Fold these 4 entries.
Entry 1:
Amino acid sequence: MKILGIDVGGSGIKGAIVDTDLGELVTEKFRLKTPRPAKPEAVAKVVHQIVDHFNWKGKVGVGFPTPLAHGKCMSGGNLHKKWKGVQVDQLFSETTGLEFTVINDADAAGEAEMHYGAGQGKMGLVAVITLGTGIGSGLFYDGILIPNTELGHTVFKGEAFEKFAADSIRKKEDLTYKQWGKRLNKYFKRIELILSPDLFIIGGGASSKMDKFVDQIEIRAPIIPAENKNEAGIIGAAVGAFDKVH
Ligand code: BGC
């Protein structure tokens, strides 16, 4: 099946048509800047522009970067506080007239990895952790998504762990990879203590730089980089959107 996959991020909103049988993009990616402030109507407008760019009339799957439950935004997070309580799929459907399914961005990236990337055939408990503006998580048991986990919000020193260990914090505080790796070590140790995953997969921008910090991480479970890299968000949005488990 062909589905338009859209990945809503803190800095950009990207879309492409995805062949969900192959898990591949069948068009070039199209990217527009995330509007600032990233209020619901402004973001919906950009989503509409992406739909129009592809002259798309079919189904759309979206990966969305906030806590969600059944397509409803639980907190505006790194986007904008006005999102809280918005039924995101409904807003995008009303704006474009198309059928939308909206899932969490890290769940989407995880779906892409489990179906077509580093997680293929991996059984047991797999935690896909995305390191970017925030820390996202997609949790899978025997390849099936346990949706809407927010493992970046585990608390450290009274704040969400992502405020201490996200890739954006590395940049903001100008940390060396060694310093950042030590912070990530604390994070992964905590998650391992709580969940004992069999495998960690690192997604987000940091997956391609893993060799710079992985030697700081001392956990029992293997930790490997994602394979789909930049495309995972779009592919996973399209593939995961119609699993109907969210
Ligand atoms: C949000 C998650 C999201 C992650 C990565 C966090 O701040 O709470 O829902 O998956 O950032 O974008």
Entry 2:
Amino acid sequence: MSQAQRIDLHLHTTHSDGSLSPRAVLELAQKAGVIALAITDHDITTALPEATLAGAELGIEVIPGVEISSRFGDAELHILGYCFDWQDPTLTKRLAQLRESRHTRNPQIVRKLNALGYELSYDDVLRLAGTESVGRPHIARLLVDKGYVTSAKEAFDRFLANGKPAYVPRELPDPSTAIQWIRDAGGVPVLAHPTWAPVSGAELSHLCRELKAVGLGGIEALYSTHKPKQTGEFLALAKALDLLPTGGSDFHGAAKPDIDVGVGRGDLKVPTKLLDPLRAAAGRGH
Ligand code: AMP
Ligand code: ZN
Ligand code: FE
Ligand code: FE
């Protein structure tokens, strides 16, 4: 309870591939001294009503959030969206279509695993997931439950990660399309975990400049796995390009057991002062 005030703008719940309910995440957030947060489930915003209700009880502000995967060559860029109208019918329809691409891909992954000799069905995956936003971490969890691997990480490293034998790419929008979807709903699009991008240094700077030209509003400079030097670089990049710095843990619960709400691996602290500029940028377009 003596934790200094902070925010966490990147959290997953059972509405996508996190292992805890929105309320359980909010309870952990309160213990960590988080005064405002965004649930950023993949391709879905259905956690918001429960999160908002729990936030009202626990004294935590909940701002609308989402995380959209986009296609960047052979890699993915994840675009976070904040402060949008989460009931916007166009966005709701677009996210539903995006979730459909999961249901096209996932059974193909299961078939590849079957061909490798592992017995599991997509019905098992759907039952375990219990949400419409079904992802590879759910398949990883099933592989753990069945005793085929000892951790979700092992499932990714051996089977599910890009380039591994059960990897199947998913049909995804371009980064500029994902950015436009967030803008169309009045929100602020932010490049998630920039160290996951397949480019760095001057190339990353160039990419961010291009994305800013099509509406990018921020960059996730503070993130659980960033080393202090990387945080410094991304803060400088945000400043140089006039992008808003944001930050969050990318908490998933059991899928990433080393990451905690609000504090990441222990040394994450996203300052509360980052929130007002984000709110002010919403609805402004670009
Ligand atoms: P999906 O959206 O179904 O393609 O699954 C992607 C999600 O899986 C990411 O957002 C991460 O949460 C998780 N993930 C991706 N790569 C890995 C990895 N190598 N190890 C563990 N989790 C991963
Ligand atoms: Zn995830
Ligand atoms: Fe992500
Ligand atoms: Fe995430």
Entry 3:
Amino acid sequence: MCFNCAIMNADIVNICMNFTVLSLFPEMFESFQRDSIVGRAVKEEKINFELMNIRDFGIGKHRQVDDTPYGGGEGMLMMCEPLFTAFENVECKTKNVNKRRIIYMTPQGESFTQQKAAELAEYDELVILCGRYEGVDQRVRDELIDEEISIGDYVLTGGEIPAMVVMDSVIRLLPGVLGKEGSHVNDSFSEAFDGKREHPHYTKPADFNGMKVPDVLLSGNHAEIEKWRRENLR
Ligand code: ADE
């Protein structure tokens, strides 16, 4: 990898994972990193976010970041220079530089799965590049990126929402992140469910306007309940 890793920040070496996000719209991540389970994981110093604005590394007084594609065609491409400079400024926040993965969010990438989330949860550092416009110059992809990920066969206006999808699914797998909300062991797609989707869930009341909870779930018979749940995996 061709960019330098700056000195780690001694205050946060105990976090499970550091996420560095390179984006033209870093404000989009404010609520994501502040609220709910992800926000709590940040407060508890289980994870850390570094949001980098690619515009800060733009060229000239207009901070240019994009240009027209060689050979013609629609749209603009994110240029090499701002992105290579941005990557040179990525800092490592955890001890183990080798456990870092650099990801580019693009509809041209491999489809994201629960298994991929589990794989990424093993790293200490995820660096995520969010594309905009028609994407980024191929030389950035060839030189800087370890892996390209798509969140599905549709095209969004940029990689920010896909980056949040990937980070959210990874964060909830990190040790201690899910508290009383539950565990990820019995998730849809998990080994516990043979890779299938979870069974239906019900809560009180047992009868809501004539819509009844299946009797077996009220029976207290754990073996029968377990059997019903297995039969109702999808
Ligand atoms: N950027 C735009 N669309 C995308 C998608 N489907 N997955 C990942 N990044 C994207």
Entry 4:
Amino acid sequence: MKFDKNFYWGGAIAANQAEGAWNKDGRGMARTDVTTGGSVNTPRMVTFMDKDGHKQKAPNRGFKLPEGAHYAVFDDELYPNHDGIDFYHHYKEDIALFKEMGFKMFRLSISWSRIYPTGEEEQPNQAGLDFYRRVFTELRNQGIEPLVSIWHFDTPLALEEKYGDWQDRRYIDLYEKYVRTIFTEYKGLVKYWLTFNEINNTINFLPDDASDEAHQEAYQHLHYQFVASARAVKIGHDIDPENKIGCMICGITYYPSTCDPKDILFNRSKWEKGIFYCGDVQCKGKYPTFAKRLWKEHHIELDVTDQDLEDLKQGTVDMYTFSYYMSQAVTTHHNDDVVGGNMSFGVRNEYLTYSDWGWALDPDGLQYYLEMIYDRYEKPLMVVENGLGAYDTVEEDGRIHDPFRIDYYRRHIQAMAKAIENGVDLIAYTTWGCIDLVSAGTGEMRKRYGFIYVDKHDDGTGTMKRMKKDSFYWYKKVIASQGEDLDD
Ligand code: BGP
């Protein structure tokens, strides 16, 4: 057996993409509540009132609220995250389906604004605490280990309006209050935690030609999140020594697209800036040597205190976790054959095929990533997101045939098996969107990832009925055989 009997097979979702109930039981708003749907070619838009009281919208990516403006929800817009897939009311049914597949672990996130609606209350929102207690208890009753993301792109909107997007040191204390509350509240119920989902997106998706000012903001934002994460690790261990707390990196395997030494160096800098910068700080507790070079390139001066450096040292993570969807080929040469799609950049790799959203399908890249990262940090690894966003069709008999998804998973599981054989300590695999949910990048429902289909559509219609796809039965068999039986 390549996968240990204690291996955590499972699936993953995030609060804002699944729960819905955006304004129920005292929950405060998050950025996704003022973000419309988009598509692979049209950006999601943020809606707001400008200082003169006029309705406005602007592309979500890189958006900054103008002076005097405030975020707003408009009656004539559709906000897909408002309903999500209504996990808030369907969690029991969904957990029963996960159990039926044999899940050992389920990754979900806590919505910060359910616990502290504006982020600055003295006391937490009891109804929010109760909701997650019910969910975690249900998981425990079903023998499924919860893996909880503390922050999955959902800072309370009130904080964003007041302080901007993590540009302010005060975020560290606010986050600390929030994590203390949840570590204390769920002691004994939750053991596995992740501090910040895809923390590296802030610099990894910042274009190389972005201004020095944009770089300054991104690196400062990250520094505050590093300190907040490190403090959370320390507090989590103090509250319950059983807690295992990880970082979460958006894992992309970078390849140079030519053997021009300039491309080799460029590729290395992609790994450094995009992947290692965050992993090194969170796993090793200090900034890597190349950080100085990166800062110098953009004339960055960070607000860093001695206490921050001490916190980073004290708060190294117990495990390295990451998402993996694709590799990217990069080059310094002019090349118009770029592959688009949300969050996917780079030039076409002629050896690979691409998803309908332009993401390179590359299981070998997962093996490469696992072995490279394990060698660098020697900490237990978890693949906490991996999956294929694709169109699904419900047949007249109600069945949903998704052989492309089964094939995708089969090849990625084989890649993980090879890495394990080669000595990597991989302990968990939670596939992304084990049940269909709202896409983070495009806000679409039709970009479906699930083993479970949800009858919800981009125009807001749908009964929310859950239906099993062919991949549901396949994954069940995979788990039952500990990853040995990968046949259709
Ligand atoms: C990751 C996010 C997830 C998830 C996934 C797929 O970056 O952590 O929230 O959504 O990507 O992306 P998308 O939803 O855009 O298909």
